[in-house]
């Protein structure tokens, strides 16, 4: 497929090394919203990725989180998160990545998530499977919510309107646990590689999900919105990504929480 994935892998490795350098030196952060952090590293990584994509694919459109994108009428469109996990990054917590996903006429065709600290390159191409450092990965075989390990995230934007803490509490009480990695693309890559059994989050942006959703699908998992409707990165900010076996049980569990049927009441606080 015209070397799209190979080029994305090469660019992600270069941007990852750049991010790792900034991480070593520690950078100051600025606020772009109430709790929404941005650093010099986000901007430098975006500049590098966009420049490289434009060199290789000058006609393609690019949507990039920090605004450095490039609009064209091409049916090819790259979604770029130059640093996913900025809050972790700014605090020196080593969990972040650079991620890029390519769509052709609205369908995902290739994607990468690169964690430069662990030097883990997750990659997928439609119809060719999902890989970690070149080795095929698959979702887990866990079938029972009670035996699952999952993850979720909480938005930086409009956090006070977010209901996810209720979902977090219910799932955490009913399973082996819920992790909060602080990086949605890593969460999706970990579902694809079987390290997590499912992931859900409210309010994600297309660049958070473009590569990770393809990774999960190519690794044999399922992705929908949180009520089970088909997922589209541009119109479904609420996502459920799982190993497939857990899809129906998880949707049923989430539906109960949506209806306010709480299996675990809040404990007495005294
Ligand atoms: C954030 C991370 C986080 C998720 C937030 C995202 P950013 O992306 O993916 O895990 O919970 O919703 O905004 O701002 O670090 O690129
Ligand atoms: Ca992000
Ligand atoms: Ca980001």
Features:
270 residues, alpha+beta, Fructose-1,6-Bisphosphatase, Chain A, domain 1, D-Maltodextrin-Binding Protein, domain 2, 2 domains, 7-stranded mixed beta sheet, 5-stranded mixed beta sheet, binds D-MYO-inositol-1-phosphate, binds calcium ion
Write the layout of secondary structure elements.
Blueprint: H1 4-25, E1 29-31, E2 37-39, H2 40-56, E3 61-64, E4 76-84, H3 86-91, E5 97-104, E6 107-115, E7 120-125, E8 130-132, E9 135-137, E10 149-152, H4 164-173, E11 177-179, H5 184-192, E12 198-201, H6 206-218, E13 222-225, E14 239-242, H7 247-258
Parallel strand pairs: 3-4, 10-11, 10-12
Antiparallel strand pairs: 1-2, 4-5, 5-6, 6-7, 7-8, 8-9, 12-14, 13-14
This protein binds D-MYO-inositol-1-phosphate and calcium ion (2 copies).
Task: Explain what this protein looks like in three dimensions.
By secondary structure, this protein is of the alpha+beta class. It folds into 2 domains: 4-136, Fructose-1,6-Bisphosphatase, Chain A, domain 1 (2-Layer Sandwich), CATH 3.30.540.10; 145-258, D-Maltodextrin-Binding Protein, domain 2 (3-Layer(aba) Sandwich), CATH 3.40.190.80. The protein has helices at residues 4-25, 40-56, 86-91, 164-173, 184-192, 206-218, 247-258; strands spanning 29-31, 37-39, 61-64, 76-84, 97-104, 107-115, 120-125, 130-132, 135-137, 149-152, 177-179, 198-201, 222-225, 239-242. The strands form 3 sheets. It has a 7-stranded mixed beta sheet, sandwiched between helices. A hairpin with a 4-residue loop joins strand 7 and strand 8 (130-132). Helix 5 packs parallel to helix 6 (206-218). The chain is globular and about 55 Å long. 45% of the residues are buried. The model has no long low-confidence stretch (mean pLDDT 94). The chain binds D-MYO-inositol-1-phosphate and calcium ion (2 copies).
């Amino acid at each position: 497929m015209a070397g799209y994935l190979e080029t994305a892998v090469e660019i992600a490795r270069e941007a990852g090394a750049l991010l790792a350098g900034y991480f070593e030196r520690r950078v100051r952060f600025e606020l772009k919203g109430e709790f929404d952090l941005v650093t010099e590293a986000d901007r430098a990584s975006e500049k590098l990725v966009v420049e490289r994509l434009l060199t290789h694919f000058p006609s393609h459109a690019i949507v990039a989180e920090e605004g450095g994108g490039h609009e064209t009428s091409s049916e090819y469109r790259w979604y770029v998160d130059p640093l996913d996990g900025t809050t972790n990054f700014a605090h020196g917590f080593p969990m972040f990545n650079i991620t890029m996903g390519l769509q052709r006429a609205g369908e995902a065709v290739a994607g990468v998530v690169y964690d430069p600290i662990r030097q883990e390159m997750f990659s997928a191409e439609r119809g060719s499977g999902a890989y970690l450092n070149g080795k095929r990965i698959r979702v887990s075989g866990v079938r029972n919510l009670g035996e699952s390990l999952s993850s979720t995230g909480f938005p930086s934007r409009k956090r006070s309107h977010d209901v996810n803490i209720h979902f977090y509490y219910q799932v955490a009480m009913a399973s082996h646990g819920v992790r909060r990695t602080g990086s949605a693309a890593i969460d999706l890559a970990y579902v694809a590689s079987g390290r997590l059994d499912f992931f859900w989050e409210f309010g994600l942006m297309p660049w958070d999900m473009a590569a990770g959703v393809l990774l999960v699908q190519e690794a044999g998992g399922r992705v929908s919105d949180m009520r089970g409707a088909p997922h589209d990165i541009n119109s479904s900010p609420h996502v459920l990504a799982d190993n497939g076996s857990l899809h129906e049980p998880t949707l049923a569990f989430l539906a109960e929480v949506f209806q306010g049927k709480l299996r675990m009441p809040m404990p007495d606080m005294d």
